[in-house]
Amino acid sequence: MRRNRLTRRTALSLLAGSALSLPSVGWGQAGSGIGGTGIDAGIGGTGIESGIGGTGIFGLIEGFSSIWVNDVKVEIPSAAHITLNGQPAGESDLTLGQTVAIEAFEAADGSLQASRIDASLALVGPIDHMGQGRGRWALSILGQKVIVSSLTDSSALGIGDWVVVTGLRDHRGHIQAANIQPTSTRDAVITGAVSSDGTVAGISVLMSEGQRLQAGTRATVQGPLLDRSPPQMFARAVSVRPLAIFDASRVGSLFLTGLPGEQDDLLFVDGYPVRLPGVSGQSDPGLYGLQGRVHGRFDLQGGKFRPRGGPAASMKPRAPFMGEGRRGHGAERPSHRGSGESLRGSDSSPHSGRAGKKGMPKRK
Q: 178, 326 in Cβ contact below 8 A?
């Protein structure tokens, strides 16, 4: 199985001459945002009082006209700053199922207007393993477990195929997929929490000398795989954000979507725990995948984000994010368009002839 991997020596020689930067892309510093022990425990370090304008929205793109996120319509003016995986992008690079962190403001007509949109892919890489249990397909990609649910748009795929995965991480760190699409790229992508050892969602990242990823942040790393096991990436581009996604100095309210875990009153926003009273813990939280996602609203009060009411179940889509049978907000767009030049090309062309024992059949 060919993966077009680099050797470690080649990667080190490339890094020696690189000028890799670690942008924070304007979302604030690590430690700000919602405290890890729960919303009522406070926000790290700002002490900012209420009255700050703007709304922070984090969730999945569910439709277009302009853009629907968390059952909320957000207009995209021409002046909006858009990034994908931390790199400059345009509105046409936004596709169904991507996670987006949006800073928006309310216009005079009551509409929400985006000033910043930061879109991310959950994962890009080759399929290492695939299996089925309890009616759900589970893939292993770069050692990451990806769950295919009834909402997932996917083509017939097989071992070794490179794919783009969008979706949300659950309480276990598994990715509940929205879309899984073949791609022609051989640049891997991983989005997740940075651990104390510098790994991103458990994947080792080779950085240039003097560069390191800060633990307790949320990073998206893009670059080729090294020729070694377990998987290790050569960091060609890195985008770093606060683990809590939003800085309290920039927004006065939040609208977040996440997945329930096993505990009551706890919502996992792309794997990050947020206290939201009224969320019901489940014995098998991943059973319904993204169909079980929950929205929560929070206001900044006395320097702390506090829940505004209880959780709200997602209204749409209750059908696939893309493809035949989709019912949801706004319009659909074609298959995933990629991220910059390295993810463009024939990535919208599904593979064929992969059903059966080797591959996952196309969902009906």
A: no
Q: How many domains does the chain have?
A: 1
Q: Considering the domain boundaries, does residue 40 fall inside one?
A: yes
Parallel/antiparallel/unpaired status of strands 67-69 and 72-75: antiparallel
Residue 90: CB atoms within 10 A of its CB come to 11
Task: Quote the tokens at residue 147.
Answer: 């769950």
- The residue-averaged pLDDT of 116-133 equals 93
Dihedral-angle region of residue 178 (phi above 0 means left; psi in -120 to 50 means alpha; beta otherwise): alpha
The residue segments making up the domain with residue 194 are: 1-347
Tell me if the pTM is above 0.85. Answer: no
Instruction: Tell me if 24 is assigned to some domain.
Output: yes
Render the burial of 188-211: b for 16+ CB within 10 Å, e for the rest: bbbbbbbeeeebbbbbebbbbeee
- DSSP string covering 310-353: S-EE--S-SS-SSSTT---SSB---S---SSGGG-SSTTS---S
Closest residue by Cα to residue 148 from 112, 122, 187 = 122
Model pLDDT for residues 326-347, shown as the tens digit of each residue: 777 777 664 444 433 333 333 3
Residue 174 lies in a domain: yes
Residue 32 lies in a domain: yes
